[in-house]
Design a protein that fits this description.
mainly beta, seven-stranded antiparallel beta sheet, two-stranded parallel ribbon, 9 strands, 31% strand
Length: 180
């Protein structure tokens, strides 16, 4: 039988009063995105350790063509069950809520999952450390990732180590950062 995500299960994972311990305890290791040598960007998937037997991971995706628009996802599921974005943070990206009530153009927004809307509904966060302009600040990817972990109640374990992404197609060792 294939497991199915429900509102009750999502709440039990994301509600701090449930008392679950969610932890990442890994080196952040970046992989090329796309076909061999395509230079599309980089991504990483970090398994979340917990006492529950739910498949959870944090993923980050950064495209070489739009490094200012990065994506952070809390994923539930596997290839067998289907992967669901429990939470998704899109920095400086576009989105339109299905009801048309709010539209984002190159603006930061967060998605929350529910049975009724999947991850189609978004809102504007106030807790993400970044410059809203199309400029990637020094150490921004790490700061945003750690803020996203905190929002998802995912602790950083003693073996957690951040490594800066190196985007393909930006020249060997070229800095991603724009100096002020």
């Amino acid at each position: 039988m294939v497991a199915r995500l429900t509102d009750a299960l999502a709440r039990s994972i994301l509600d701090p009063s449930a008392g679950l311990t969610l932890t990442i305890d890994h080196l952040i290791d970046w992989e090329p995105l796309g076909f061999q040598g395509s230079g599309l960007g980089v991504h990483t998937s970090i398994p979340i350790l917990s006492e529950i037997r739910e498949p959870l991971a944090l993923r980050i995706r950064i495209m070489s063509s739009t490094p200012w628009s990065s994506h952070y996802l809390l994923i539930w599921g596997t290839r067998l069950t289907g992967c669901v974005n429990l939470r998704r943070l899109d920095l400086r990206d576009d989105h339109r809520n299905p009801d048309g009530a709010e539209v984002w153009t190159a603006r930061t927004h967060k998605h929350t999952w529910s049975e009724s809307h999947a991850d189609c509904m978004a809102y504007t966060p106030t807790d993400i450390p970044h410059d809203p302009d199309l400029t990637v600040g020094v150490d921004e990817y790490r700061q945003v990732f750690e803020a996203f972990c905190a929002e998802c109640y995912v602790a950083l374990g003693p073996s957690y180590r951040w490594t800066e992404p190196s985007l393909p197609g930006r020249g060997g060792g070229e800095s991603l950062w724009v100096d002020p």
